[in-house]
Design brief:
Chain A: Its main location: membrane. The complex is a heterodimer. Chain A folds into 2 domains: 237 residues, no CATH class; 93 residues, Periplasmic binding protein-like II (D-Maltodextrin-Binding Protein, domain 2, 3-Layer(aba) Sandwich), CATH 3.40.190.10. The model of chain A has no long low-confidence stretch (mean pLDDT 84). Chain A is α/β, with parallel strands linked by helices. In chain A, 39% of the residues are buried. Chain A is built from 13 helices and 4 strands. The longest helix of chain B is centred in the last third of the chain and has 16 residues. The chains are: A alpha/beta, B alpha/beta.
Chain lengths: 365, 254
């Protein structure tokens, strides 16, 4: 009998195809890699639209037919709240509103108006924003008034026209990075440990398939799935929430290349976890130890520069930090892959380290 | 006519650290026969089977399967054998057709899934998932996966454990049918009635050694000739016959 030459490509593809179908039908993969990031994006997409606003209670006794009120009312940052005195005071105490303003006509002539502002300890930061808004508003009104002395200095402000950095521009790459991390770690660890425990891999070994084909096939399935997820997330972000893709299609391609690289590194974590864990119930704790700190510290939600200085070195050690960073630079600043080679290099170093560990601890049976 | 051996095992030894699981066993399996490995739990049946299936390394000894030396060309052996593992699962979330596709890909061949499923009467379950099958259907599917590469030899490890009498008889018919196409079958079982019905020859293994090899009939005749008598008078039927008589031979599965 003639045995046809055995094709390793064919067996690898067979595994990739089976694994891909299995991923699509497993609820946890779809929830963690697609739904979860999408919810965050939708939530932040809606919150993030308006920028900063200061809620200012308008005292009921306040005069409203004056140029100061009119000007303030036109400023986007200032959001006037009208409610009864008692609630207003309570809200001010609790920081639900950031200040209360009361503009009164001066019955004794000049200055024409008194602007009484009550700030609250509960919202100091927004209070100071209002303070500077007010001084910006009142100053020109003062100078415009008749027989005012000539100004000592004139403020000349210019604003360069830059791109608007929206919340979505920060949130989306972080969510994409995190989706890749959870697909890589949770997905891979669970699959390999269950294939091992249910003897699926053992049964595979009775066929001519090689170990390399099994790992490669699983990896291909996850990469394809992750790329679909990435494209979906990017498109929803772009078309629904105006996520900035500075160079359009090229940016998307660069983001996908970075995503693939990131996923390959994270797959290494998953393989290592599956080797360390003795059964399926040990996977979540170990996988969470890997993913949760990165979820919080890798600039997924907040910029790393907002962290206390002692925490920043930890953030700067994590691989997801660099993937997120590279994705943001590519998407918003239009950086090329070469521009982010520093981030790519650190990801690669992580990759080499984690695969060295995975090879050591990975178990086939 | 004496048929040539398709499997030869000589002085096979398997040690796990200090424990000797298989202590130098030798036997031959002839082409086209059903060969049974019988013995108590832990006797070394599964270890011996898994070494022949290329799934476990041997410590020493020589194993030839279908003309290939296990040591030199395990990959050639994988192409000509079919393997059913005890309690093995299948790739999650896939239906039977997809699983067969996966396996044919692993063997690098193309297989018509429906034809294969019809051999084990599972065509109506083509779109069902493995875990949705009944015990008997699971075992029939497992056997179907051993046939994908049209093997010369198939290995079945306790294929009927846990099945009801109807499903067991159904599986016996299937095994005999596969043998009738010329496939050699090596199986393990704890059921002596099963071995008596199915096996042409049996090897009794205990403590990692072969006690004796012979046909079921010969074993029984020899024992009777030695003056052995059952404590209880043998009736012309047993309780299982009553069970089948009452409940019929029809398979009970949805």
């Amino acid at each position: 009998m003639k045995i046809k030459k055995y094709s390793h490509i064919k067996s690898t593809i067979a595994i990739a195809r089976a694994s891909f179908k299995s991923i699509l039908r497993s609820p946890s993969a779809v929830v963690f890699s697609l739904l979860f990031p999408l919810i965050f994006i939708v939530v932040f997409g809606f919150i993030g639209g308006g920028g900063i606003t200061v809620d200012v209670g308008l005292d009921n006794k306040s005069d409203t037919i004056n140029p100061i009120y009119k000007t303030l009312n036109q400023i986007k940052v200032v959001h006037f709240v009208v409610e009864d005195d008692k609630t207003m005071n309570q809200d001010l105490e609790k920081g639900r509103i950031d200040a209360v303003i009361n503009i009164q006509k001066n019955p004794n002539g000049l200055p024409a108006y008194f602007v009484n502002v009550k700030y609250t300890e509960a919202s100091k930061e927004k209070g100071s924003i209002l303070k500077s808004v007010l001084s910006n508003v009142i100053l020109p009104i003062n100078t415009k008034a008749n027989d005012a002395p000539p100004p000592v200095a004139e403020l000349r402000e210019t604003t360069i026209s830059g791109r608007e950095y929206k919340t979505i521009d920060f949130i989306l790459p972080g969510q994409l990075g995190f989706a890749l991390l959870s697909t890589g770690v949770f997905g891979t660890a669970f699959v390999f440990i269950s294939l091992r425990l249910t003897l699926v891999i053992k049964r595979f070994f009775a066929t001519p398939v090689t170990k390399a084909s099994i790992v490669l096939g699983e990896a291909i399935a996850r990469i394809v799935f992750a790329l679909f997820t990435a494209i979906f997330i990017i498109l929803v972000g772009h078309f629904a929430f105006g996520f900035t893709l500075i160079n359009g299609f090229t940016t998307v391609v660069n983001m996908l290349i970075l995503s693939t690289l990131g996923l390959i590194v994270f797959l290494g974590f998953g393989l290592a976890v599956s080797g360390v864990a003795k059964n399926e119930s040990i996977v979540p704790p170990i996988a969470n130890i890997i993913t949760l700190p990165q979820f919080l510290l890798s600039g997924t939600f907040f910029s790393i520069s907002a962290f206390p200085t002692w925490l920043q070195p930890i953030s700067r050690a994590l691989p997801l930090t660099y993937l997120n960073d590279a994705l943001r630079k590519v998407a918003f600043e239009g950086a090329t892959l070469w521009d982010v080679h520093h981030q790519i290099l650190i990801l690669l170093i992580w990759g080499i380290g984690i695969y060295a560990l995975a090879v050591k601890v990975f178990k086939w049976e | 006519m004496e048929k040539s051996p398709i499997i030869t095992v000589e002085n096979l030894v398997k040690n796990y650290d200090k424990f000797e699981a298989v202590k130098g066993i030798s036997f031959e399996v002839k082409e086209g026969e059903i060969f049974g490995l019988l013995g108590p739990n832990g006797a070394g049946k599964t270890t011996t089977l898994e070494i022949m299936e290329t799934l476990r390394d041997k410590t020493s000894g020589k194993v030839m399967i279908g003309g290939f030396d296990l040591e030199k060309s395990p990959n050639d052996i994988k192409h000509i054998i079919g393997v059913q593992l005890q309690a093995a699962g299948y790739y999650p979330n896939l239906n039977l057709t997809e699983l067969i596709k996966l396996f044919s890909g692993l063997y690098g061949i193309d297989v018509n899934a429906i034809d294969l499923l019809s051999k084990v009467s599972l065509v109506d379950k083509a779109k069902a998932k493995y875990k949705e099958l009944s015990g008997g259907q699971k075992q029939r599917f497992s056997i179907a996966t051993t046939l994908i590469n049209k093997p010369k030899i198939i290995f079945l490890d306790e294929p009927t454990t846990g099945l009801d009498p109807q499903a067991r008889r159904n599986l016996w018919d299937l095994i005999l049918e596969i043998r009738s196409t010329g496939t050699t079958i090596v199986l393990t079982t704890h059921y002596m009635d099963e071995a008596e019905v199915l096996c042409d020859r049996i090897a009794f293994i205990d403590n990692g050694k072969i006690i004796d090899i012979n046909s079921p009939d010969q074993f029984i005749d020899d024992l009777v000739a030695s003056g052995f008598e059952r404590k209880k008078e043998v009736k012309k039927a047993n309780l299982e016959d009553v069970f089948i008589h009452f409940t019929g031979k029809d398979l009970r599965e949805s």
